[in-house]
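Our collaborator T.R. sent over the components below with a one-line note: 'Predict the complex.' Nothing else. No constraints on interfaces, no templates requested, no preferences about which chain binds where. So this is a plain run: every listed entity goes in together, and whatever single assembly comes back becomes the starting point for the next discussion.
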Amino acid sequence: MNEVSSSEPDLVIQVEGLVKNYGNTRAVDGLDLAVHSGEVFSILGPNGAGKTTTVEVLEGLRKPDSGKVSVLGLDPWHDGYTLHKKVGVMPQGFRFFDKSTPREAISYYASLFGTSPDAEEILEIVGLSDAADKHFQDLSGGQKQKVGLALAMVNDATLVFLDEPTTGLDPQSRRGIWDVIRNLKKHGSTILLTTHYLEEAEQLSDRVAIMNNGKIIVCDTPSHLISKYGSERKVVVSGGSKMYEYLKSALSFRVEAVDSESVQIYVPSSTDILKVVKAIDESGLPYEELSVRRDSLEDVFIFLVGRMKEGELS
Amino acid sequence: MKPRRILADFNVYRREFTRNSAALFFSLAFPVIIILLFGAIFSGGSGGTPQLYVQNLDTGQLGGSFTTALNQTGALQVVLVPSNASFPQYLLDHSYSAGLLIPPTFTTEAMAGKPENLTIYTNPADASSQSVIGITSAVINAFNLKLEHTSPLLGLSLKSVNEKSPSYVDFLIPGLIGFSILISPMFSMVNISSEYKRTKLFKQLSLTPLTKGEWLVSKILWYLILSAISFIIMVAAGELIFHASVSITYWVIPFMAMGPLFFVSLGMLVGTVTKSEESAGIVGNIITFPMMFLSGTFFPLSVMPAWLQGVAHIFPLYYIINGLTDTMVYTNYTGAEVDSAIVAVLCIVVFMAAVTAFKWRED
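Returned assembly:
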């Protein structure tokens, strides 16, 4: 495979028609991808979608069967050794030597990379200062992941790969990791993140690619994806069939009975919300709860992946 | 190959190892426990009056009265050896540790006023040897006084039975050095190479500038040092506790260098070619255990039936232990040369196989 030259100067990762098979299974099926400098780019997908394989090809850990792959202008498989000095990687399920401490881990990586990072600063950024001298085996799951993040920062990489950095962590540890990722972005790093937590992608990413069956289905900013594929805003009110009957006749919007209790009203714009609330008030009917909902990335994801399963999108 | 990276990886591994009490126990303390145990069982002093095997070839009277005098001290029990026996060999054949040879010319020379030496054979590893020598010397002194000559006529020349027949502990030292060269690198490397594969630690390391060659070299370096420490402990324990006498020359170096190299590579190879940690452990044990017992580690090959001795020749450890025994016990350097050549060839083959099979990343 020849070296791929980036057509746009700020493209950090460029992939065209990537294919990777494991025996008879096609893990990645003609994938195209372009990641710009300085952005947090997330690849979302259900388990087995091919996220990790894609990332491992980009890291130079796996040889692509066909397609063009360029990372920082290098061919990851053939120039892996050069590439690895320039990128930071936190692999899925990061592990380190059981009886080494986070501080020792940083100094080990620094010696391997021939860099002299400020260990204290890195420990501070990832929030490991208090556990800097604990053996890796005695750290909590979140702290272990943070060691992985710390090591991805040792060589001052401009591009950082984070493969499911928060999988298996409790919500609090997850938020701690998010802060670290935001910090990395502030320092100007480009971050490629894979995750199957939709909230994570929504919170952190500039752009999101939703992947299924080895292909990227859609790729855009989270808010564009939501407005494009998500449903309209809806007001949900409890109140049963009487409320349903009343609102259906009183409003010109689409009204649905979700179950025997809840009624939902689709509203095209945010100013219409007040009209609905007013109608509910005027009905004089009793109700327990009233809320306004908007689709999240999760709803979009389920919608898109579900549609793909039905064969509509593929 | 960058020394900086090898050193960094060496230090991480050294810490992992020294912070793991089980690893330290099995690589350093365990062989010492075995040497203490086996040494005490097989070469412990029997207690009671030491026996002295005397072959009296003297044609005159003096030899007989000397033997009687020895016996009368009560500190020794004299056992007469037939005069047609070939003396030092007789002791070896019967595993007697102390013997005295009275030469045919004993009476005639003494009467003629010529100095004469009696030869005493002892096993320095035997706790009673010093008392046997002391008592015999005392009797010789008494005879010298009786003979009333201006200068002592009778002397004692000391010979070691050990020269040809090593004591059990002498033999146990190279055996157990071989044992520690085998078990620690073998078990650790089988274990970590399959474990690091499972936990994807190798994959992680492949994302750093560390090369697999550097990684392997740092492990070999560590086990070289560990084996050298083990060597020193084992020799010291044998010499101090059991009065073993082994000779240490530069000929131990090829074995102490190639042994760890070989077993690090072999362990690596087993851990690499097997699919899971379980199968790696099983294959590792299948290779390690027969080799551990049949290569002359705990007992000499000569006690085993001939066919089993033949089997021993397929084990690389046999050549390492044999070479160390040749060097340290028999000072037979020609034998050591042959053994080291065989080990060198095995080393090259296994090292190359390990380096070839061992992959940082998959296709």
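Summary for T.R.: Residues 51-163 of chain B form a domain with the abc type-2 transporter like fold fold (CATH 3.40.1710.10).
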